[in-house]
Amino acid sequence: MQRLALMLTVLVLSWAANPSRAQVSVDIELVIAIDTSVSVSDQEFALQLLGVADAMRGPLVQEAITSMPDGLAVTVMEWSYGHLNRPVLPWFHLRTANDSFAFANHVEQVQRNGGGRATAIGEAITRATELLNNNNFAGLFRKIDISGDARNNSGVNPLVPRQIAIDQGITINGLAILTSDRELGTYYSTFVAGGAGSFVMAISSSGSIRNAMRRKLERELQFQLSHTNPDPFVQKARMSFDEDQ
User: Fold this and answer.
1) Is residue 2 part of a domain?
2) Closest listed residue to residue 104, CA positions, set 173, 208, 32, 207
3) Does the residue 51 lie in any domain?
4) Spatial contact of 175 and 147, defined as CB atoms under 8 Å apart
5) Range of 122's domain?
6) Which of 192, 238, 236, 197 is nearest to 35 (CA)?
7) CA of 103: how far to CAs of 90, 142, 212, in Å?
8) Is residue 31 part of a domain?
């Protein structure tokens, strides 16, 4: 009996020392994937982050977060291709307005690590899916929020990892920045976004990035509040234009 008790004690201590074994229930797990490829200027990169921070400090997102029984788990990753696709913040669990403000402060402090010359959207979706599958949270809904200004030009076709993500119940929403490709919104709707309730927002100027990032997060989280049982078979993304208004 003493030997059995000792073994159980060791198992319990081992589990406690490895928090990755624990799963904290949340309403939504969200990866915010920020484009940092060479076509994105430092100013445009900063505007994407400022839009996220604005959303987290805004009343609509804070209302959404505080209305969730178990809160929001969120991280930010930068992407261009391959090994450059990496999180720039750890996972945060947001349940209160103070949590949301604190996360916004961290977002504003993110420094660009540099970007590659390629735009590998498929690899970015794969990396974001890995982040969702390897954390300490168990989300009722899982989402990837990806922004970018160009089509996939390296690595796997985005349709392949997109379908893998959809099959795992993940929704991918997009922000298409049309500064160099006027049809990028349609491309994002066809090849990038998908899953339950997915959508793409498209903007025609870099000056609209900050506002669009804020509005996209508001729309994303408010949609979830009003659609607790979205159709899991909806895969066609809806597209809208979002300018400063």
Assistant:
1) no
2) 32
3) yes
4) yes
5) 41-241
6) 192
7) 10, 19, 19
8) no
Distance of alpha carbon 188 from alpha carbon 199, whole angstroms: 9
For every residue of 125-176, DSSP letters joined together read: HHHHHHHHHSSSEEEEEEEEEEEESS---SSS-THHHHHHHHHTTEEEEEEE
* 209 is a domain residue: yes
CA distances from 170 to 50, 65, 132, 196 (A): 25, 19, 9, 8
CATH number, domain containing residue 231:
3.40.50.410
List, as one string, the DSSP characters of 44-60.
HHHHHHHHHHHHHHSHH
Residue 60 CB neighbours (<10 A): 15
Which two tokens mark 221?
A: 């989280």
| Per-residue pLDDT tens digits of the chain, which is 245 residues long | 444 333 333 333 333 334 444 699 999 999 999 999 999 999 999 999 999 999 999 999 999 999 999 999 999 999 999 889 999 999 999 999 999 999 999 999 999 987 778 999 999 999 999 999 999 999 999 999 999 999 999 999 999 999 999 999 999 999 999 998 999 999 999 999 999 999 999 999 889 999 999 999 999 887 655 554 444 334 456 777 665 43
